[in-house]
Amino acid sequence: MMESDPFWIEVGLARKLIPGMKDRLLLHAGPPIEWLKMSGPMKGAVIGAIIYEGWEGTQDGAERLAESGGVTFAPTHHHNAVGPMAGVISPNMPVYVVRDRKYETRTYSNLNEGIGKVLRYGAFSHEVIQRLNWMRDTLAPTLASTIQEVKKDKPGIALKPIIAQALTMGDDCHNRCNAATSLFLKEITPYMIRAGLEKDTLIESFNFMAQNNFTLLNLGMATGKAITLAGHNIKYSTIVTALTRNGTDAASWINGLGNEWFTAPAPIPKGVWFPGYNENDANPDLGDSAITETAGYGGFAMAAAPGIVSWVGGSVAYALENTQKMYEITYTRNRNFLIPFLDFQGTPTGVDIRKVVRTGITPTITTGIAHRKAGIGQIGAGIVSFPIEIFKQALKSYAKKYEI
Amino acid sequence: MMESDPFWIEVGLARKLIPGMKDRLLLHAGPPIEWLKMSGPMKGAVIGAIIYEGWEGTQDGAERLAESGGVTFAPTHHHNAVGPMAGVISPNMPVYVVRDRKYETRTYSNLNEGIGKVLRYGAFSHEVIQRLNWMRDTLAPTLASTIQEVKKDKPGIALKPIIAQALTMGDDCHNRCNAATSLFLKEITPYMIRAGLEKDTLIESFNFMAQNNFTLLNLGMATGKAITLAGHNIKYSTIVTALTRNGTDAASWINGLGNEWFTAPAPIPKGVWFPGYNENDANPDLGDSAITETAGYGGFAMAAAPGIVSWVGGSVAYALENTQKMYEITYTRNRNFLIPFLDFQGTPTGVDIRKVVRTGITPTITTGIAHRKAGIGQIGAGIVSFPIEIFKQALKSYAKKYEI
Predict the structure, then answer these.
(1) What percentage of chain A exceeds 70 in pLDDT?
(2) Which of A8, A321, B61, B321 is deepest in the core (most CB within 10 A)?
């Protein structure tokens, strides 16, 4: 995991780039789930994706299609992909491709839409679909031309250095990606200009990314997926290689146990609410974004990001405390990701199920909060801990597999 | 000072924009000084400026011209200008104009050249002069076109919000301007593109600024000058409105005492040295950049910028301690500039000479370090405290003026 070396190398449609992606397949965040068990925001994102793909034109039609089995569902993680919140990726959505130059794996993520009324939080109104169309028709081609220019000079955009720098600039690179987004734009802008795009397209794409502090979240997640994939499927290892939620269940993958899912009901985050909403409106946690914590940043690096408490709640003291607690359940300190405020100590990295079960401390992350009903969107951001059950189950399965 | 509202509004040649700027006049950092008393790096910058202006072609010629009185010297502060290190501004150097929209004052700073072998640290070789020529002929016109585009949409680039955000992103905005530079570029890039410049010029200018983490230092200093100017010349006030050094003397201005200079020998900073150099090579401190601390950021906000200790030395504990100590000698906590790590407390703002003299604690700042010989340049960065004498003198003068 420490030696993984992820680079952004490509942007294009999921159906062309993600292995196993096919017509009528929708990828989603978290462990496997059927339509009937999906929560409101996950259903909302599925409805939106069906309308976006043109498989049906209306909410009713989309619901009937999903219910009748006219759509196949699969977890993003089964395709080395990750998506924040609902994490729905449909065949004609653009995705980033990240290549691990050390281990030669490829991981994928969709493009970030911004906050509020967006597909990944379960919104699917006309404005949401139009934004997705624009991202496919304008933003993605801009980024594709840009990364082609980059590749004339170098193998791609190195992602670990962006995350490492951003952690010294007040980001946790999960719910605060302000610095990471700025650093990313600073790096790609000369190539965007060089690509010879139409001036208006260039400005429109730049502004869309610059005005969204979550622009780098998705690439940061594909980076986390590359890092954790580097440590996946290694015999005897007790390190967690995926932590994720689908809005109904929270789940983990354990290094030495392959793709076996351990699940328990997803908890509701404690948070800071957008005006007009409160905890009664909140859906249980969802999204693949806990891949950032699994890889050694995100909420585990809260001590690097005191400014985040104005977005997710808690206090600066809590931010420090959370990072300190995560050292108790992780294997080591990260060599790449340092926290200046803890005297440049590496972030807590590699959740060890043995330590989780022994201490009773579970991974605690920063997260976005979706309305529990389909069609509304983001209503806040907060902090949430994974349920202990998924680590206990994993430890039992481990003991059984390795006959301990 | 709190209500000052500085905007970047223009870029152009000093002789056209700085009131009182004229042929054969060189502005310099710090209190007034004659050629013979100037330190090596100040002399080096003067030599470079004379060659840059074409008043003489060689080092010898430039020295003779300066010695014979063929050049007039004046402190930047007498022209509402500020410059880092030697702070030399000659008539044909481009400068930023900052307008305080609250108090309708204008302040000025030159453009940042990068680090190492640069004029402001006393270097004047061919490469230094060529870079200055390029900045005049390419960078400044690019920025001038950009700010013209900005002004079609809004009154200019608001600078306090950039500094305020950067302080939540690990900058002190004096010796660490990484975030401020990124935020500035993020804001001006769409206007740079819109300005319709030649593609190569655009990329060259963008890269020059993006690859120099000190790009925003000079605009941040002009911001500090605007903020302190807002509080200058107010009867009875004991607040410091300028702290500056010319490489020979350190000096202060006090609010209620107008432009009376209080000076004492400039100290040598404690620092981190570029390879091959040590404290024996160091010149006494120089530059107007302590205007940042005078305005409530820079070293006073070290607690916001733990990452800075890898550049200026000291420890993270020291960074916290320095900010805490500065509260003892300042009047209030800043309403604009907050330090997340101190629970979003405002930065210590408004050095009060009464508190300095009573506690014996003097303003402590982050700084760059120049080689003591002309022609070499930057050899490190560090931390330095102003001498107590300049505050004692000021307090005596205050008592006399106000007949206390």
Answers:
(1) 100
(2) A8
Q: How many CA atoms lie within 13 A of B273 on its CB side?
A: 12
Give domain A6-218's CATH number out of 3.30.70.1170, 3.90.1710.10, 3.40.710.10, 2.102.10.10.
3.90.1710.10
Distance CA B102, CA B163 (A): 17
Architecture of domain B233-401: Alpha-Beta Complex (3.90)
The domain ranges of chain A are 6-218, 232-401
- Spatial separation of the C-alpha atoms in residues B145 and B136, rounded to whole Å: 13
ipTM at complex level: 0.94
Q: Considering only CB atoms, which chain A residues are within 8 Å of B195? A: none
Express each pLDDT in A220-273 by its tens digit.
Answer: 999 999 999 999 999 999 999 999 999 999 999 998 899 999 999 999 999 999
Taking an 8 Å cut-off on Cβ atoms, the answer to whether A315 and B341 are in contact is no
State how far the alpha carbon of A254 is from the alpha carbons of A84, A103, A391, in Å: 20, 19, 9
CA count, 13 A, side-chain hemisphere, A53: 25
Tokens of A242: 């995926």
A205: confidence class by pLDDT, cuts 50, 70, 90: very high
Q: Please tell me the distance from the alpha carbon of residue B56 to that of residue B50, in angstroms, as a whole number.
A: 6
Residue A299 CA to residue A288 CA, distance in Å, equals 14
Q: List CB contacts of A3: < 8 A, sequence separation 6 or more.
A: A102, A230
Residue of B nearest to A171 (CA): B169
Are residues A389 and A264 in contact, defined by beta-carbon separation less than 8 angstroms? yes
Q: Establish, for the pair of chains A and B, how many residue pairs have beta carbons separated by less than 8 Å.
A: 93
Q: Are strands B240-246 and A157-158 parallel, antiparallel or unpaired?
A: unpaired
The CATH architecture one would assign to domain A232-401 is Alpha-Beta Complex (3.90)
What is the residue-wise DSSP string for A204-258? Answer: HHHHHHHT-TTHHHHHHHHHHHHHHHHTTT-TT--BEEEEEEESSEEEEEEGGGT
Q: Which among A364, A365, A363, A78 is positioned nearest to A240, based on CA atoms?
A: A363
Contacts of B182 in chain A (CB under 8 A): 179, 182-183, 185-186
